[in-house]
Specification:
Blueprint: E1 4-10, H1 17-22, E2 30-35, H2 42-47, E3 53-55, H3 62-72, E4 77-80, E5 85-86, H4 89-101, E6 108-117, E7 123-134, E8 140-142, E9 148-150, E10 155-164, H5 173-183, H6 190-202, H7 206-219, H8 224-240, H9 244-253, H10 262-274, H11 278-289, E11 301-302, H12 308-320, H13 324-337, H14 342-365
């Protein structure tokens, strides 16, 4: 059985830290907590779980803080989390099984990262990240903001999931850091351009986000998954400022970098739906349902676009085309995913009102 050091960097996490640490009881052999300036009870809570609590002066650099945390670990493997992350019970069991069976030849283990879920507990947003790494490989974190762990060697793709369970978020923090770096005259890497554009989009600075997404894509040095995602986000920004033609062109642009993704197919379908081209819209929503599965994808996935949402939109398309039975069938599939969604319930009542008289008339004619 391998040994595991858990590494966290924290600041004012009194409302979530105990929950996180409780979820790794019996799993982590060592807990390293790096405090970057808490003014609440975070340090006291951390100290009730471990003696390994260290101070780190915050310098607007997440990679520096995480590398400091890694430097304090002594176990064979290092597991990293944020304070508002948890392992649910099933994933705790899976992680314990992995700990008991993991070959020491494995350098890094990736896990799902569940970011959001719907009212029925279905995951709606997820990605994959390297979570467990061999300490003696001395892997390093890179990037002041939206940092990433640079790994190599033998990797294992697991079905274990870390669940993000945030109760609050400093939504302006990352944007402030990026703009401070720009003010100092720093030249951004392609990755920084992409994530800065994301921050701008998240703050509804759509015109400026368009500028930086295009700048990122023009470097032709981005990771392919970031290129594909940038095209989709660029499409959303154009749509937000009322430029629907560029919105569709940006979604189509994503096909330059890889196979069609369900999110971009839905964007194209929506463009045609809004234009009244219902057969074309239906084609793209059907395509969204049949894109290759991305279970091992590292990019952010909106799982709604490959499950219930295309069916809901196909219901609209087929209703407009007068194919009411087909519309009803797709709405029922959507209802299996989202039984209480207002649009699904509205469609069900409406279509049953349409179909019942038609079925009565058909029986009368026969």
């Amino acid at each position: 059985m391998v040994s595991i050091s858990l590494c966290l960097i924290v600041r004012n996490e009194e409302d979530v830290l105990a929950r996180c640490l409780d979820s790794v009881k019996g799993i982590a052999d060592e807990i390293i907590v790096i405090d970057t300036g808490s003014t609440d009870e975070t340090r006291s809570i951390a100290s009730s779980y471990t003696d390994n609590v260290y101070d780190f002066e915050w310098i607007d650099d997440f990679a520096a803080a995480r590398n400091f945390a890694f430097s304090k670990a002594t176990s064979e493997y290092i597991l990293w989390l944020d304070a508002d992350d948890i392992f649910l019970e099933l994933d705790q069991i899976k992680l314990l099984e992995l700990k008991a069976t993991l070959s020491s030849e494995v350098d890094t283990v990736s896990m799902f990262y569940y970011l959001s879920q719907d009212e029925n507990g279905m995951i709606t947003s997820r990605l994959r990240r390297n979570r467990l790494v061999r300490r003696d490989r001395q892997f390093r974190w890179l990037g002041a903001v939206h940092e990433y762990l640079e790994v190599y060697g033998v990797s294992l793709v697991s079905d274990i999931a870390v669940t993000h369970a945030s109760t609050r978020h400093d939504s302006d923090r990352n944007l402030r850091i990026y703009e401070q770096r720009l003010a100092k005259g720093e030249e951004f890497s392609p990755r920084d351009l992409y994530y800065y554009a994301n921050e701008l989009k998240d703050h509804s600075h759509n015109e400026k986000a368009i500028q930086y997404y295009n700048l990122f894509l023009s470097t032709k040095k981005g990771w392919v998954e970031d290129n594909i995602a940038a095209c989709g986000k660029l499409s959303d920004c154009y749509a937000a400022v009322g430029n629907q033609e560029s919105a569709m062109e940006s979604a189509l642009r994503s096909f330059q970098y890889g196979s069609p993704r369900s999110e971009n197919c839905c964007r194209i379908g929506y463009y045609h739906l809004q234009s009244g081209a219902y057969e074309t819209a239906a084609y793209w929503y059907n395509t969204a349902l049949h894109t290759p599965k991305q279970d091992e994808a590292w990019s952010l996935q909106n799982t709604s676009c490959s499950t219930w949402l295309p069916h809901l939109q196909l219901c609209v398309c087929y209703d407009k085309l007068g194919q009411w039975l087909k519309a009803y069938e797709h709405n029922e599939i959507a209802r299996a995913y989202r039984p209480n969604h207002p649009s699904v319930l509205h469609n069900k009542a409406y279509l049953e009102g349409v179909l019942t008289p038609l079925q009565t008339l058909e029986k009368a004619i026969l």
